[in-house]
Amino acid sequence: MSFEILNAGPLSTVQDLGRFGVMKNGFTQSGAMDQRSAKLANLLVNNDMDCAVIEMTLMGITARFDGDYIIAVTGGDFGSALNDVPVKVNKAYRVKRGDVLKMGYAKSGVRAYLAVSGGVNVPPVMNSRSTNLKSAIGGYKGRKLMNGDIVEVFDTDVSGLRINNAELAPYDYSHDITVRAVLGPQDEMFTADDIKNFFSTAYKVTPQADRMGIRLDGKALQSKNGVDILSDGIVFGSVQIPKNGMPIVLMADHQTTGGYAKIATVISVDLPLLAQAKPGDVIRFEQVTVKEAEKAAKRESKFYNKLRFY
Hints:
The chain is α+β, with helices and mostly antiparallel strands. It has helices spanning 35-44, 192-198, 271-275, 290-306, and strands spanning 2-7, 12-15, 53-57, 62-65, 69-75, 81-82, 85-86, 92-95, 100-102, 111-116, 150-152, 176-183, 203-205, 213-217, 228-233, 238-240, 248-250, 257-260, 262-266, 282-288.
């Protein structure tokens, strides 16, 4: 079972929830930038949340299916249509052999996710099917999708599934985004004014934002005695302050270590908001405690556990 990529768009890759336990070997986490949308796409088609999906950036794919599947598109609204009939975001649809899904440019958000019942079937590399473009591993032959690619799908019987209730309201992506962040781990390198400015400045997303990091522009932070540190670990959500004083929120394809101080860490629950931020969007940071971050993560976990469509 498979589907053919008729138009791959500028950057479409296979992603799951990421590659873990390999940073010590120099490999990044990778995985879906907007993990919430990837999980919801899978749940809408009756997959496990960690099944591989197609992540599309700025423009979606056009694909022709070779069999009977349930599909769902989540994340940004890319003006999708199935056999030229518009389809909704966050809703499950049945497709049969010869059906064509065509997606356009992003009307809202930056990234969209396509889940197919059974999940995308590519060989796992270090326990993940995610694409790491820099290392050219995982995903579809370690690269982005191209026109003419045949993407295999795990075989699963969906004939008896009723999809009537497999739908959620689409997310309304704002151009003024507030994300919560925990102070540290190198906050002691910054002045009280730096910390105050970081949590009060309305930063703008620059055109250099990508899967590695969301680069921001706004009030530069000065630090006490520079921002250089001995390289230490980076996580998804680390807010690094380079020498120009402009924050960079490190994302799914972040480096494993870095030599600039990290003033804060965006909580995992809010990272999907950054994944959908466009150049020019406003980003604000709200300080929370580790305990508050843990509570938010537990609430989100309960939400997924209670979400049942079938």
